[in-house]
Amino acid sequence: MILIMPMSDAAGTQQIAGLCQEMVDRLDKSGSALHPSPEELGSGDRERVAHWLSRGCRFFAMEERLTLNVL
């Protein structure tokens, strides 16, 4: 298991790229990355938030909405 913390700031602007982004892209391409889909991001849907929280992904479900951002 590899845990890569969000690579963007609170506004959603990417702050980290390079080799770290390449690793994330490769994991995602192989189906090995676990993260909310782009369509889910920003959602406050309680079921979606509960889904990610049940998987131990607390940093995807900050302030009762789905995000990849550091808040």
Question: What do these coordinates show?
Answer:
With 71 residues, this protein is mostly helical. It has one domain. The protein is 30% helix and 6% strand. The protein contains two helices and two strands. The model has no long low-confidence stretch (mean pLDDT 77).
Descriptive tags:
2 strands; globular; single chain; 2 helices
Query: What's the order of the H and E elements?
Result: HHEE
Strand content: 5-15%
Count of helical segments? Answer: 2
Mean pLDDT: 77
Whole-number tally of structural domains:
1
Helix content: 25-40%
Largest sheet: 2 strands, antiparallel
Quaternary structure of the protein: single chain
Short description:
This protein has one domain. The chain is 30% helix and 6% strand. It has helices at 18-29, 46-54, and strands at residues 61-62, 65-66.
Please describe the topology of this protein.
Layout: H1 18-29, H2 46-54, E1 61-62, E2 65-66
Antiparallel strand pairs: 1-2
